[in-house]
Design goal:
By secondary structure, the chain is an alpha/beta fold. The protein contains 13 helices and 14 strands. The relative contact order is 0.16. The structure holds pyridoxal-5'-phosphate. Pyridoxal-5'-phosphate binds near residues 66 and 174.
């Protein structure tokens, strides 16, 4: 017998669960890309995308994953030999820095570890020390998906202003956009990058770079930008194909149109609130499991620094992997692997795993997933504290 038959739940931090409306929108024959519906559809799509980022800035769309958006954004504002400063709070911060290095950009890193998030005072100090203003940009992850740390952009903006530093503030919003509150313009973010397969609920393959006027000016000051990544035509296209530097990603665009309709029908503020409530239900369960000498620990202790889209947890050496295996094979829930959480006691980081709770997600999915985790801990024989499901239900009932 298996209890895994039925609709599966992919609870990894991207790709996320795709709404049926997105899948249905993609199920259609190839359209004409020179004129007609899809060309008209783009007119409304760009403003709706900007509403997700809460910005009046321009947006460049790439046929790429998040790594592509990382490289695209850097390619337009820094050249070989230029410097950027990267605030690292997990594997994804290292990843963006590595992308810069691949372009010959010098990426100085401040590593804030995996538990505490960015300390804006240390950033300010580093910027004050850069008296020649060599740093072209400050890079950070709004959410680092490996550690599940949430970094508030506002204190970073304040630190840059206090230091009087002209660098661009560049946010990796790949895991956070469409999940966490984010206000690009009000919060003074100059460049924000995201991808299609997380909060936007579309298959992987599209990515987005939001470009403020200050970032546009930085691009104009560059001597040369590789043709495909150059955002110039993409943000101000004279013809439809210029959005994409070639053939449009037609079916991804149909899916994106459907997902933007879903997001804006709910309203961005409500979408953020839903993620917040569901995340608090998950945290309440995790705290209960960890009480009474339970093994389970969330990676981020301070709730104010926790992402509302992904939670990284530890269950003691190897048990994370065992739990993942049990819930996938026995109950149809797929959890994310731990990333970059290796320690001396746990050299492969097998104690860690991640719950993706981003995008197309509601209360019954979360309660079902939490109940499944509890069954899994019982099945593999891990001790846990009582009352987790009651605690989660209370949060949801109160909302
Ligand atoms: C998923 C993710 C990426 C990488 O995106 P890909 O589409 O896998 O290239 C980068 N940064 C963050 C914060 C992410 O969550």
């Amino acid at each position: 017998m298996t209890l895994a038959a039925g609709r599966p739940y992919l609870a990894i931090p991207g790709p996320s669960v795709m709404p049926d409306a997105v899948l249905a929108a993609m199920h259609q024959p190839a359209p004409n890309i020179y004129e007609g519906d899809i060309v008209a559809m783009m007119q409304g799509m760009v403003p709706d995308l900007k509403k997700v980022a809460m910005t009046e800035a321009k947006v460049a769309i790439y046929i790429a994953n998040g790594h592509g958006a990382w490289e695209a954004s850097l390619s337009n504002i820094a050249a070989e030999g230029d410097k950027v400063l990267v605030c690292v709070t997990g594997r994804f911060g290292h990843g963006w820095a590595d992308m810069a290095e691949g372009l010959g950009i010098i990426a100085d890193k401040i590593d804030f570890g995996t538990k505490d998030g960015i300390d804006a005072a240390r950033l300010e100090e580093a910027l004050r020390a850069d008296t020649a203003h060599e740093y072209k940009a400050v890079l950070f992850s709004h959410v680092d998906t490996a550690t599940s740390l949430l970094n508030d952009p506002r204190p970073l903006r304040a630190a840059m202003d206090a230091a009087g530093h002209p660098a661009l503030l560049m946010a990796d919003c790949i895991a956070s956009m469409g999940c966490e509150e984010f206000r690009m313009d009000a919060w003074g973010v100059d460049i924000a990058v995201t991808g299609s397969q997380k909060g936007l609920m579309v298959p992987p393959g599209l990515s987005f770079v939001f470009v403020s006027p200050k970032a546009e000016a930085a691009r104009k000051a560059m001597t040369r930008v590789s043709r495909y990544w150059d955002w110039t035509n993409r943000i101000d296209p004279a013809a439809f194909y210029q959005f994409f530097g070639g053939t449009a990603p037609t079916h991804h665009l149909f899916g994106l149109r459907a997902s933007l309709d879903i997001l804006h029908a709910e309203g961005m503020e409500q979408v953020w609130k839903r993620h917040d409530t569901l995340a608090r239900a998950i945290w309440a369960a995790c705290e209960a499991w960890g009480a009474d000498n339970g093994a389970l620990r969330m990676n981020v202790a301070d709730p104010a620094k926790r992402s509302h889209a992904v939670t990284a947890l530890g269950l003691g050496q190897r048990n994370g992997a065992a739990l993942r295996q049990w819930v996938a094979q026995s109950a149809g829930v797929t959890l994310g692997i731990g990333l970059g959480m290796e320690t001396k006691e746990d050299p492969k980081g097998e104690g860690f795993f991640r719950i993706g709770h981003m995008g197309h997600l509601n209360a019954h999915m979360v309660l079902g997933m939490l109940g499944t985790l509890e069954a899994g801990m019982q099945a593999i024989g891990v001790h846990h504290g009582p009352g987790a499901l009651e605690a989660a239900a209370r949060i949801i009932a109160k909302a």
